[in-house]
Amino acid sequence: MASSPSAAAALPGPHPCPFSLASSPTMAASNFRKVPWRSQAVPKQSSLVSSLPGVHHPFDSMHETRLEEVKSLLIEMTLEKKGSSLESLEMLDALYRLGIAYRFEEEIRSILQEHHYHHHHRPTMSTGGHGTSSLYEVALRFRLLRQEGYLVPAEMFEGFKNKDNNNGSGESTFDPDLQKDIMGLTSLYEASHLGMQGEDILDEAAIFSKKALISWEDQFLDVGNCNFYSSSSSNSEEYLRELMKNTLSNPFHMSLPRFTAKNFRTNLFRGSYKWIEPFKKLAALDSNLVASANRHEILQITSWWRDPGLANEVKLARDQPVKWYIWPMIMLTDPKLSQERIDLTKSIAMVYVIDDIFDVYGSIDDLTLFTEAIKRWESMEGLPDHMKGCFRALDDITNEICSNIYEKHGWNPTRLLRKSWEMLCEAFLVEARWLTTPNAPSTVEYLNNAIVTTGVPVVMAHSFANLSSEGISDQILTGVLDGSSRDNILEISRLTGKILRLWDDLGSAKVPP
Prior knowledge:
By secondary structure, the protein is mainly α. It folds into two domains: 10-37 and 318-508, Farnesyl Diphosphate Synthase (Orthogonal Bundle); 60-284, Terpene synthase, N-terminal domain (Glycosyltransferase, Alpha/alpha barrel), CATH 1.50.10. Helix content is 59%, strand content 2%. It has 21 helices and two strands. It has helices spanning 25-30, 60-79, 86-97, 105-120, 123-126, 135-147, 182-192, 200-217, 237-249, 257-266, 276-305, 308-313, 321-331, 338-359, 364-376, 385-409, 414-434, 443-453, 456-467, 474-482, 490-508; strands at 161-166, 172-174. The protein has a two-stranded antiparallel ribbon with strand order 1-2. Strand 1 (161-166) and strand 2 form a beta hairpin. Helix 7 (182-192) packs parallel to helix 9, helix 14 packs parallel to helix 17 (414-434) and helix 19 runs antiparallel to helix 20 (474-482). Keywords: Lyase, Magnesium, Metal-binding. Its cofactor is Mg(2+).
């Protein structure tokens, strides 16, 4: 698996394909990917004292002051009727890129609603023109609205196409003069990543802007690792070169502000906006506070994982609690969701434990008995000790998570969570049986089963349960687990699992000679 910090790295790697023969735990172990065992470094307790509950953090009062200062600036932007200005767009973009937008959801919503209103009440915008707005401004507005769920039409970019210049097919292409506008090109390329099926103009925008940016990039010397941002700034070659390089390699929609904010913050803006310094100071404080909370959560998770009782139950499993924590840390960024991050990490840990049992430590007969025990969720008769230990640990964790959810939301997700583990074990058992036969499954059979063995349906089920205040209906229960529904969020589980499986398989597949 690639060593990226992505959420996908939190789940088990794929089983080798094409399938090799294996009929015993010993033979399965010979094909098992080696990993560090009980060796992952964790934060020292002394570094976490300031983030313990009830202990005053030295940054708390400063952080509150900076929060109020930035909130006042955002409110001022709205009250001064600048809510639809380019400056307000750059303001919001900075909040997102610095990773502090989640602190100002209401203020951001107010400004975006103002932009959405003006978009619908300006004829040039709704008919595909752009009036006096630059490509940079139009593309930035489109991206910010789209990423918050406003279905603004992609046709707003039609005004930037040259009707007299076509690609030979009779269809117009983007105006060649736009290739001189580096800021506009970077903004257009960023916006093109939020296209939906059938929006050909955004596909064209991606091709046009990427080609132009690469051409520009080749004209600049390679320089240091900086960032540039702001239409009112002095566009030095150094900053423009890095702007293009970073846009091409890490477009915002495909990046994580948590990992990119520091570089953006270091060289943020060379303009004169009065909110620049307050934004930078708040981002630095917020980053420290969030990191402190994350370290404390990792300490809790590692303490749980290395508890003598649990360690004895699952002593054969991998020891990678920090790795397992990455996905919850990225998915659930709100500091208030601390318990949810911890609970989700425990679930991911058990996905790994069960994956190891099926990959290494079980015969087909034992694995069949284990799967049946998970389906009944009661009997451990005839199971080896390590499988009994795994079941006991899984039962304890599931009960703990269900209790937390019931206490917070008032509903019991036991049926949902148990069903997710049942489906995971059944899918693992299917793969284990494939390994004992000379005939490999078809591509469709493999992929349909492999989507489940990614662990994504289990993680999705636990995520939805942790965040849902109204319970989950039988219809949603089925859709979340097996992706059988094609409605709304129910498709998320299936598609996320497919993306992860294909991405991971492509990273480990061997090309035949």
